[in-house]
């Protein structure tokens, strides 16, 4: 496995873990009756603030992950792996790991800065592929 694919694999595992944790928290807060239903109605109980934040952090990862995965795979397939691409991929991974607790605990403005680091790492990967 190339140095750029290792962070991609870890990010994929993180994606699964983030989904599992957020789903478990929602299940505890809302009850299995609601979470296993078609959710045609509003829940009868409210989620904790941390649960709602974990779900939003996961939703953000759903939006970010395809952009990261696509460029890492493109760099791998085209053989453009370099020190820059490897560092950018690892920076993305570290930023996304840091983003979860930053969102869950409401670290303002740090959550936004961490998100920006991940986005900058992704942009760096795209630029490196074009140069």
TrEMBL record:
Region forming the signal peptide: none
InterPro entries according to UniProt: MAPEG-like_dom_sf, Membr-assoc_MAPEG
Gene Ontology, cellular component aspect: membrane
This protein's UniProt keywords: Membrane, Transmembrane, Transmembrane helix
Subcellular location: Membrane
Top-level taxon: Bacteria
PANTHER family linked: BLR7753 PROTEIN, INNER MEMBRANE PROTEIN
Name of this chain's protein: Inner membrane protein
